[in-house]
Amino acid sequence: MKKRHEVLFNQLETYRSETLALVEKITEEEAERIPTGFNNNIRWNLGHIYLDQYLWIEAVTKEKSDQTRMLNQWFGFGTSPTNFNESTPSFTVLKELLRSQPMQIKEKYGDHLEKELQPTEMGMHSIEQVLIRTIYHEGLHAAAIQYLKRFM
């Protein structure tokens, strides 16, 4: 693995650890609260971070998964916690999914991060480019989680 790819995965794991640290002391009940003026809660933000990373990987690889199709109904763009039901992954399950995601991506795609694929509508054409974009996206939602915590 190239040095820059090691750095990329280190960043992916580090930022994910920071996101998870934000919710370490949050209870299931707190994760469900939607403060006045907000559209979503902490649980939704965690599910959205997880889903977004796989949706962008799917966009560039053209691979489809039943898991992302299922999660998209609860955590996709334009959804809200009002769509949640008994099948929606819990706050605890989402934290575990997020914890394991960087390693799963590294194991599956780590050896072909630069492989030229069909470009997305944003022009990304490799897993490497997608991961850079999703790290930025995760930071936006980490900030949203920080704001949500302030209004609890």
Main attributes?
mainly alpha, single chain, 152 residues, Four Helix Bundle (Hemerythrin (Met), subunit A)
Assign the CATH superfamily. Answer: dinb family like domain
The count of β-strands is 0
Task: Round the Cα radius of gyration to an integer and report it.
Answer: 16 Å
| Low-pLDDT windows of residues | none
Instruction: Characterize the overall form.
Output: globular
Q: Supply the helix-strand structural class.
A: mainly alpha
Number of helical stretches of at least 4 residues: 6
The domain count comes to: 1
Please give the alpha-carbon distance between the first and last residues. 43 Å
Q: What is the H/E string?
A: HHHHHH
Strand percentage: under 5%
Q: The CATH topology is what?
A: Four Helix Bundle (Hemerythrin (Met), subunit A)
What's the main sheet like?
none
CATH top level class name: Mainly Alpha
Helix percent band? 55-70%
What is the second-level CATH architecture? Up-down Bundle
Arithmetic mean pLDDT: 96
How would you describe this protein?
This protein has six helices and no strands. The protein has helices at 3-22, 28-32, 42-61, 66-75, 91-109, 127-150. The protein has a single domain, classed as dinb family like domain (Four Helix Bundle (Hemerythrin (Met), subunit A)), CATH 1.20.120.450. The protein is mostly helical. The radius of gyration is 16 Å and the shape is globular.
Write the layout of secondary structure elements.
Layout: H1 3-22, H2 28-32, H3 42-61, H4 66-75, H5 91-109, H6 127-150
Helix pairs in contact: 1-5, 1-6, 3-4, 3-5, 3-6
